Amino acid sequence: MKTIFNRTPLVPNLQAPLCVGAIRPEGWLRTQMEKQLRGLTGRAVALLRAGDLEAEWEKKWQLLDALVPLAWEMEREDLKELVSREMRKLLDSQREDGWFGPEDNSDYWPRMLALRALWQYFTATADRQALKFMDAFFKYQFRNLAEHPLKERAVARGAENMLLAMRLFNLTGQMYLLELCRKLREQTLDWPNFFHTFSLTQPLGKTLRWERLKEALEEEIDDPIAGEHRPYFHTQYHLTHGENLAFGLKSPGIMNLFKSGFKEQGGFRFGWEKLIKHHGVACGCYTCDQHINGASPSQGVEIAAIAELLNALETLIGIGDYGKDLPDLLEKLAFNALPAAFSQEMEHVQRVQQVNQVSISRAKRAFYNEEEDANLFLDRAGEEFSLCAQQGWPKFVSSLWMGTSDDGLAAVSYAPCTVRVRVGEQPVRVRVFGEYPFSETVSIEVTVKKPLEFPMYLRIPQWVRQPMIVLPDGEMMQVRAGETACVRRRWQPGDVVRLELNSSPRITRWYHQSAAVEMGPLLMAFAPASVKEGERVRATEDWNWALLREEPMKAVFSQSPQGFAQGEPGARVLVKAAKTPWTMSGESCGSVPVMPGLEANEVKTLELVPYGATELRIAQFPVGNFYNAQTTE
């Protein structure tokens, strides 16, 4: 199936997603997804087969939204059959007027989820019944949106509905779909203006405590957010909710496709920069426990927000030009916050992670409105946030490469994979070797039946030092970090392009002048020795270290990286650190000390490992000066 690009009068896009199944994971990434199939997703599939998700329709479609790409990427015929069966049930549920799903559920949001899964199914199978189904539903919306408006979460996430309508428009050209998008925009939260005038610079726990917000929501219970109606506290709830913010960040870009303006074009950038400035942490996300709550690395980051933010970035990369750094932002989230949310075998998931996390326990923390077990790794296969989280790796695989409008291919990330597409009438296979991001060298092999000319766009990450591309004939291309190199040539069978993406450990600054050590797209963390006591994990060695200012750092790569496996890190960084007075606050790390005094005339070499391979960790360190130090190993 050919790549689908924006149709006039939508703003044109130069690259767009390939069909589901065109990209298959290899190496450590395939191992990661095999773990997912054996772990949480495997157990969720068992629930689906047993019919245990029928009564909770939204959960079913949360799972299928992840299962469609997973089944085709992993070439699992049993899962393809299961997905096809569920899609037939969905198609058969549609009424003559276009409405579908359970009669006792009038919420648009689960239907957006179902259509999101159905669209992926269409790109994998080319089943045109899916298009007829979508057309009938959108006509229902077009006729009935005034009497049957968006409500609650659908008001916050209405851009998802717009995106699906525009995807159908790109195939059919029916103008009513664009008018439907305009109607949907009127009922969707005004995210472009919210980000342009962003004023939430303090933790929500300080400006609108949960007890007050909860009380106000109960007072407004008979006055819900719906259509264009915006009761104050319901609106504040949705605008500050972490998962909704992920939908909000992609909303201006989606709206920009059919109504281009200053706030729409710059909406993502306005929002992202302000969120990270006031609520950002080093794992690549903003805090949300469940609502935005300041920039302390002891605040929480919810996995559902991580998964939807990944999807938001992938969407923006595929629909328009919203910044060359979007793939860097995507990789930072995918290679850090995402793997850290799951246990090693992906059998358990942690609802809320902390960047500085030295205790995993059932306890009340300074989170905004999370339960006491939010910090635990538990078997949550059938819970909504766990089902939402399962889309993370499969959709990341679907977005590793994109098709371009000049019949080429564009690299988004160099994680190991195989891409199969057709250029003109000829099949093309592109294999990405190397264990990126645990290796600085990436090899890309092109397989064609006979010589074929097409362009390949190779992204150079912003963090690379002295990048280089070596072409099949040995010619070297000098390129710059943050740019995209176009390799346009007549490809011969077996041609190999090699990229040298050299990096070195670097310091980035965060809350309270804390320092994070990053190498390539990886955030590095100190993982103190620990012991597991039932569901609790506690540190058994000191964790309160401060980095020494201007001390050199040493990077070490593994010869046989195992992805994010504990004990076998694909990369390590050695740093000098000194102990500092820094204590716990309840079950969380206390606030990061600013320029702390160091306890003793002693320095230790700490080994930092990838954040995604840790359970307990410190990833945002205080920094201090230390003189006349003696090193102990």
TrEMBL record:
The keyword Hydrolase applies. One of its GO terms (molecular function) is hydrolase activity. Residues 413-502 form the Non-reducing end beta-L-arabinofuranosidase-like GH127 middle domain. InterPro entries: Beta-AFase-like, Beta-AFase-like_GH127_middle. Keywords: Hydrolase. The keyword Hydrolase applies. PANTHER family: DUF1680 DOMAIN PROTEIN (AFU_ORTHOLOGUE AFUA_1G08910). This is Glycoside hydrolase family 127 protein. It comes from Candidatus Pullichristensenella excrementigallinarum. The lineage of its organism: Bacteria, Bacillati, Bacillota, Clostridia, Candidatus Pullichristensenella.
